[in-house]
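anyone seen this seq b4? input:
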Amino acid sequence: MPALTLPPGSAAELAAFAELQARLPALFRHVFSDPLAPRTVVVVPGLSVDPEALAKVTGALHYEERQLAMLMLLRLPNTRIVFLSSTPIEPAIVDYHLRLLADVPDARRRLVLLSASDAAAQSLTQKILDRPRLLQRICTAIGDPAIAHLSVFNATPLERTLAVQLGIPLYGCDPALSDWGAKSGSREAFRRAGVRMPDGVERLRDDRDVVGALAAIKARNPSLARAVVKLDHGFSGEGNAVFSYAGCPEEDAERWIAGHLPLNLAIEARDLGWERYSAKLAEQGGIVEAWITGEGLRSPSVQMRITPLGDLEFISTHDQILGGPSGQVFQACTFPADPVYAHSVQALSRRVGEVLRATGVLGRFGVDFVSVPRGGDWEHYAIEINLRKGGTTHTFQMLQFLTQGRYDADRAEFVTATGNVRCYYATDNVVSPAYRRLTPQDLFEIAEQRGLRYDSKGECGETFGLVGAIAEFGKLGMVAIDTDTDAARRRFRRAVAVLDEEAAVTPPAA
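predicted toks r here
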C-alpha cells in the first residue's frame, strides 16, 4: 500500500508533510547539485485548477504532455523519471522526446510511464489519489524514497496529500502559502516590496465590493476609461473581465456603476455569464485594477526560484504575447525579454522574491508585468505572481536541457554549454482546423522529411509539444530556437508555413 495514508488536511497529515519537506535542504545540497547522483523524479503534470476553468481550455487533457520536456533530465545518467498522465500518452509522442536524447542510449530504461486511464476534466492528482493500486505502482517505481521528490504543475492540498501518501517531499510551495499566488496576495506582496502596481483594490468578496472598488479608482482618476476585475484564482487570464466607464457621470458614479456592472462588463472566459462569474467571485474573492494603456505596451515576465537552501535565483525572463477578446490571455512568448528593460524587471522581481522568501515560499514562481514606454524610459506595473510552473516553464526547460546551458542574469541572455547565445519563440497555440487531418505520427514524419527538427550541432531548430491535441483539436505547441528573437520568429513562421502546406495536401489513394 502507499507509504502513508492520513486524513487529508488533518494535523497528522500536515505534520507528516512538514517532516517530508524538512528533507529538501539535504536533498538539494547532495542530490540536486550533483549530476551523477542517483535520484527519482515523480512528475505529476496535471493542472490542479478550477475544473470549470480547465474545461474551457482547448485540449486541456493534453497540456499534461507539456511536461514531457522533463524527460530531458534523463540526460543525467543516474536519474529515473516516473511520469504520470490522465490517459496513456501515444507511443509516437514519447518516442519523439526520447529521440531528442539520441546520445543517451539507456534513457528509455530509466523512464516509467503510468496512467490513471481517466479522461475526465478533473485534477490528475485527484485521479491518482482515487486509485490505491496506482499509488502502489508509483511507490514501487520510486524505489528509495530518500532520493526522490515530487514535481507538479501547481501545489494545492491535493498535491500535499499525494506527497504524504508517496512518502516523498514536494519541490514546490506549501499550499498553506498559496494566497501569495492569488491576485489579492500578489498585490500585498507588491506593496510590501515597494513595487509599482496598477491602482486598485483587493480582497473583494461580492458585487457590492466590486462596485465600490470601481467607483473608488474612478474617483481617483476621473479620466480612467476602463478597469479590470480579476478572480483571485483565475487561470491564464480566463478569470478576468473588463469594465467600461463609457457614459459614467461625474456625479453619483457609484450608483451608475451599480446599475451598469453586468452590462458594461466583458468577461474574458467563453460562455461564462455574469451570474456564474459573480458566484465565482464569492467563492474565490478578487480584485479590481485600473486598466493600463500606452503606445508600445509590453508584457514581460520574470521566472525565479527560492531553493530549499534559501537562495533566490533567476531562471529566465520572457516577453509574453497576449490575446483573447481584450488581450489578457497568454498566447505565446519570446525568450529572453527585451534587453532594454530585462534588468529593470529582474531588479523589481528580486524585491518581490525577497518578500516571498521571508514568508516561507519555496520553489518556482513568476512575476508578470505590464510595461509602457514613457519619456525615454519604461514604467513597469507588477500585475501578478504565479506560484507554479507556467506557460514558459516547459519551453525554457526544453532549451536548457537540450543545450545544457543557463540563463545569465547579468547579461540577460541564455548561454549554451558551448558558449553560444540562444533565443526562442514559443507557443502552445499553433492552431488550424486543417491540422485535424494529421495524427501525431504524421506530424513527426513531416518534421523529419521537411527538416523541422532540432540540430544539436548548430543548437538551433524546432521542437513540438502538445502533439496529442493535433488530430482532435487541430492544435499543437512549438519552440523555435535560434540565435536571436527575430531569427526565432522567422523560423517559427517557416515551420507553420510547412505545416499549413502539408495539412492541405491530400495523400494519394492506396
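The mean pLDDT is 93. The first strand starts at residue 39 and ends at 44. kinda curious what u guys think
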